[in-house]
Amino acid sequence: MNLATELAVIRGINELTTTERALHFCRLAKELEKAGEYEAACGALAEFWPERAIAPIVEGLDLNAAADLLLRAGALSGWLGSARQARAQESAKDFITRSIEIYEELGDDDRVAEARSDLALCYMREGAFDEARITFKEALSKLKDEAGDLRATILIRAGIVEERAGCFADALRLYKESAPLVEESAEDALKGSLYLNLGAVYTRLAEAEGREDYRDLALIQ
């Protein structure tokens, strides 16, 4: 990006309202999060989330922007934390739960499902696989049929939980269920996630069952 373009972007952002800026930076943070750039995603939210140990600043925002900001802060807290950092996962769950409450108030079922999916990941990181399964099931039940990418994402995440729990056949079933939706998607990151996790579960199945055909399938994925 050249200087003139960069200045135009900055000028455009400065002309936005507080709510519009929050939504803009939430969208940017989400894209960075998808790419695995978690620190950069946190940086994108710095105006509204200057201290990661406390909740983001939602005063003055409309409900949709407040929920989006809480969800992004919660998701990033979860990614940057670990099972050994119980405080990080507790903060993540708190932020995400607050976003769910707002999305439910707004009647936005797809965003409720998305937020529940991130909440389920927090449970998974803590090793609470049953809670994660229940939360993923609730997320899927909220989705509309046309929510292809989101449904695929939730199915893949649910498969990761089963793989970590050692339930490889269930993981494979969930990955295969997501496959038609992934093939219709334009999201390269989503496709990469499916193939990577399919390869991983075929590898685990090959080791568990001594099947060379699964090793071949793992390499193909």
Write a structural description.
The structure is a single chain. This protein has 221 residues and is mainly alpha-helical. It folds into 2 domains: 1-143, Tetratricopeptide repeat domain (Serine Threonine Protein Phosphatase 5, Tetratricopeptide repeat, Alpha Horseshoe), CATH 1.25.40.10; 146-221, Serine Threonine Protein Phosphatase 5, Tetratricopeptide repeat (Alpha Horseshoe). It has helices at 3-14, 18-34, 38-44, 63-80, 86-106, 109-125, 129-142, 148-164, 168-184, 188-209, 212-220. Helix 2 (18-34) runs parallel beside helix 4 and helix 8 (148-164) runs parallel beside helix 10. Mean pLDDT is 87; it is low at 1-8.
**Named CATH topology of the largest domain:** Serine Threonine Protein Phosphatase 5, Tetratricopeptide repeat
- In the predicted model, the low-confidence regions spanning at least 5 consecutive residues are 1-8
The structural domain count equals 2
Order of helices and strands: HHHHHHHHHHH
Output the CATH homologous superfamily of the largest domain: Tetratricopeptide repeat domain
What is the CATH class name of the largest domain?
Answer: Mainly Alpha
**Which band does the percent of strand residues land in?**
under 5%
Cα distance spanning the termini:
35 Å
Observed structural traits:
single chain; 221 residues; mainly alpha; Serine Threonine Protein Phosphatase 5, Tetratricopeptide repeat; 2 domains; disordered N terminus
Q: Can you summarize this structure?
A:
Helix content is 77%, strand content 0%. It is built from eleven helices and no strands.
